[in-house]
Amino acid sequence: MPITPIDDQRVARLSDAAQGRERLRANDNLHPELADPVQRMLNAFEPGTYVRPHRHGDPPKWELFLALSGAAACLTFDEAGTVTERCEIRAGGPLYGVEIPAGAWHSVAALEPGTVLFEIKPGPYAPLTDKDFAAWAPAEGEAGAVAMERWLRSAPVGAAAGCRSGT
Question: Do you know which InterPro entries this protein is assigned to (predicted)?
Fold first, then answer.
């Protein structure tokens, strides 16, 4: 099996793909199968794409994000939707990445155009049970999702999510 390069061209192609999509995101799986025990992927996303707060709880899984280009806010929440931790990761540092604890409510928000993250988490990927979405956060496309995405970009520790699902 050949080496899989993660280079400027691959990152730029993925970023261009994200910019051209309605959801403003694109991913590139590096693992060969969804059943792979280690999921490895590049995720490109632009400011304006909404990653609904969620956790990986069945079974609990950690997640690691490293910034390859751009910058992203990485947030964790308590059960009620209050921000418990917030980190901004950037390709140029000083903070390049974070590991989200297993089972933690979390989200990421692109802070700059051209943001691409390298993500690693335990597999296998089971589409029906991979994510448990937070009831206190609107679903993608629901009223309040746009406001929630903007809030995620700047929400400080201690702030409570002001958007509720279905409102």
Answer: Cupin_WbuC, RmlC-like_jellyroll, RmlC_Cupin_sf, WbuC_cupin
Enclosing H/E stretch for 5? none
All structural domains of the chain: 8-154 (2.60.120.10)
Contact 85, 76 (CB under 8 A): yes
In tens, the pLDDT along 4-56 reads 999 999 999 999 999 999 999 999 999 989 889 999 999 999 999 999 999 99
Contact call for residues 35 and 123 (beta carbons, < 8 A): yes
- Sequence-distant (≥ 6) Cβ neighbours of residue 36 within 8 angstroms: 123, 124, 125
Q: How far apart are CA 86 and CA 94, in angstroms?
A: 15
| CA atoms of 157 and 146, how far apart (whole Å) | 20
